[in-house]
Amino acid sequence: MKKENTNPAPGFAKGSAAASDAKLGALLRESRIAPALPPRFQEGVWRRIEDAAAPSKSIGSIVWLDALATLVLRPRLAFATVATLALMGALLGTYQGTQVARQDAQAHYLAVVAPNPLR
Q: What are the sequence ranges of the domains in the chain?
């Protein structure tokens, strides 16, 4: 079934509307302004692509730290990293608490056993 315009504009034949639409479309395409690319644009794009693909150059002793940070900051290892750091913090806190408790016990024992001049 062919779709027809039931109310054509006065003075237009059936085929002339499509022709004027085509002419208008061509005129609109020609009137678009395409900005000129900066000089050596394509060369700059390729240079950035090559720089991104090239391995990063770091100072000798920091290379392992960069590799560790890259490994640890991956999304699938982030939870394991946080859990490991929390566990290490708890263990170090427990160790430090044990050391402080031992020193307090030694000081208390010395205070009870030793004579007054040694305190």
A: 59-118
